[in-house]
Amino acid sequence: MQPEKTLKLKGISRKERNMGKIINLIGQRFGRLVVISKADSEKNGHTRWNCICDCGGTTTVRSSHLLSGDTRSCGCIGREMLSKMCLKHGMSETTTYDCWAAMKQRCVNPSSHAYRNYGGRGITVCERWMKFENFYVDMGECPIGLTLERKDNNSGYYHENCCWDTPKTQSRNKRSNRIIKYDGKSQCLAAWAEELGIERHTLWYRLEHYPPQFAFNM
Predict the structure, then answer these.
(1) Sorting pLDDT into bands at 50, 70 and 90, what band is 151?
(2) Residues 6+ apart with CB under 8 A from 68
(3) How many CB atoms sit inside 10 A of residue 194's CB?
(4) Which of 75, 130, 198, 218 gives a 20 to 30 Å CA spacing to 91?
């Protein structure tokens, strides 16, 4: 939508606009966005508007960006374009897709050998990530040598709880690991052995016979 046409629809002249008067955009549509209320102005004085998108999302946009057509959605148009790009370039043959597919299998498929440790104990995949395109938009390409890791092993798979990490870190976050608390810090035996410069089996033997405060300082 051209600025000139928008001004004509509202019956406001360029002279009034140049005088600094605020144009009321409430109820107007700009692409997928409909303005629902005025938001707080920016520190430099730019007027902003709260908008709802056709996809259900919300966003706050400057008047100038709406009127110029620079902003036409809450960001969903860009995400859809990226999704189409992913499909176009055959992402189903990538490591990123394999990580996503494996995540779904262990959480939703009772026939998966890993299901009992994931879906079987309540670990779920968020609704948004049931589609690979959304997962890719949130997580991006899987870096070489990294795997998908949950920050909290008792929570499910969603953007805020996931990251790309090394298999070493992932293995140390397993529930089956022996977690040892010492001097206000908790980590698995392997991590303690590495930090203290002690062979893992030696540290294990010491902890079998002595409490941490002695085993770590022998």
Answers:
(1) confident
(2) 3
(3) 15
(4) 75
- Whole-model pTM: value is 0.44
Find where tokens 């007027």 sit. Answer: 47
Q: Which SS3 state, helix, strand or coil, does residue 60 take?
A: strand
Strand partners, 149: 163
Q: Do 25 and 49 touch, CB atoms closer than 8 A? A: yes
Structure tokens given for 201: 């089996």
Tokens of 207: 């902890």
Burial (CB count within 10 angstroms: exposed 0-12, middle 13-18, buried 19+), residue 44: exposed
Strand intervals (E) in 6-137: 29-30, 33-39, 48-53, 58-62
Q: Measure the CA angle with vertex 158, ends 153 and 161; round to 5°.
A: 45
Determine contact, residues 190/199, Cβ cutoff 8 Å: no
